[in-house]
Each structure stands twice: as structure tokens, then as C-alpha cells.
Amino acid sequence: MCGAELHSLPEGVQRVAAVLQDKNHPHTPVMLADAARTAQQAADALGIAVGQIAKSIIFRRTEDDAAVLVITSGDRRVDEKKVAALVGKLGRADADFVKSKTGFTIGGVAPVGHAAPVVTLIDRELFRFDVVWAAAGHPHGVFQLRPQDLEGLTSAPVADVVKVD
């Protein structure tokens, strides 16, 4: 992606694209015609399984007000108790908190390019797939990657963070 193409993208997508370019990631963000605020909407738009969506869930760590990002498979539900055991007691993160800590609106939170550092965990369930898609900083923006790429892009640990059905 060249500089001119970057300037036509929304600001959040520009930040994500810059990080991806910086880290030599082979895939640039794609803008979808319709919003993909949910994992199901994104999967439908891309024609893939909902589990292949690397959805971003933000929590507020109560001890220091840090944002905790859990990148989980779109067909799984985060187990808040498992996450808290790894990072500390959690509270709800409202839309204003998410925007102020990540720089992204809910429905477009990317795994990279945050406004401030965030505590990040990667759901091991994503590794069931060869290819996944993550939000790219805007409800219409997504980018392709392998689950292993998340480790390199975020330097975050892989953990068991989902509910067992």
C-alpha cells in the first residue's frame, strides 16, 4: 500500500495499516461495503466461518484502569474469570473507555495500532484455523492474517480464555 492509498482510509485504518506495513505483514486492510460490527457480520461479508474472525473484546482492569484486549475466535465466548486469573480483576469497558484507550470505536477495535498500550491476550482457539481476519480500526475495515501472526504483531501470550460449553 503506498502513501496515497493510506490517506484515503479512515484514520484508525491508517494507523493499523502503518503498523502492518512497519512489521512487513503481507496483507493490507480491506474496506467492506457494509459494517462488520459483529463477528457474524464480518464472517458473512467475507464468506468465511464465524470462528475465523479474530474478534477484539476489551475489559477494564480495575486495579489500574488499564485496557485489557482479548483477541478471541468469533465463535467463542470469553470467560471473564479465566482472563481475570491471568491479568487481575476486571470491570466493564464502556464505549468511551474503549475509544479513549484504544483510539477505536467498538466494532472496529484492531489487535494493533492502539492509542495507548493495552494488555493483550490471544485465544488459543484461533489456532484451529490457518487464516483468520481481524478488525482494522473501523467497523468496515478488516485484514487477513494467520493466528501465529497475532503473536508477532502484538507480542501477546496465547492463553485459554474462553468458556467451555
Could you give a quick summary of the protein structure above?
With 165 residues, the chain is of the alpha/beta class. The chain has six helices and eight strands; from the N terminus they run ααβαββαβαβββαβ.
Give the percentage of residues in beta strands.
15-25%
User: Could you describe the largest sheet, including whether it forms a barrel?
Assistant: 8 strands, mixed
Order of helices and strands: HHEHEEHEHEEEHE
Percentage of residues in helical conformation:
25-40%
| Extended strand count | 8
Overall SS class: alpha/beta
| C-alpha termini separation | 42 Å
Q: How does the overall form come out from the CA principal axes? A: globular
Summed over residues and divided by their number, the pLDDT gives a mean of 93
| Low-confidence residue ranges | none
- Rg over alpha carbons: 15 Å
Notable traits:
6 helices; alpha/beta; eight-stranded mixed beta sheet; 165 residues
Please give a structural write-up.
The structure is a single chain. The protein is of the alpha/beta class and 165 residues long. It is built from six helices and eight strands, in the order H-H-E-H-E-E-H-E-H-E-E-E-H-E. It has helices at 3-7, 11-22, 39-46, 80-87, 95-102, 147-154; strands spanning 30-31, 53-61, 66-73, 90-91, 119-123, 132-135, 141-145, 158-159. Strands 1, 2, 3, 4, 5, 6, 7 and 8 form an eight-stranded mixed β-sheet that branches. The longest helix has 12 residues, at 11-22. The model has no long low-confidence stretch (mean pLDDT 93).
